[in-house]
Amino acid sequence: MARLAAAEVDRRLEGLDGWKRKGKFITKTFTFKTFMDGIAFVNELAAIAEKQEHHPDIHLRWTTIRVEIQTHDEGGITPYDIDLATEIEKHVGGRHELKPRPAKR
Question: What is the CATH number of the domain that holds 87?
Answer without folding.
Answer: 3.30.1360.20
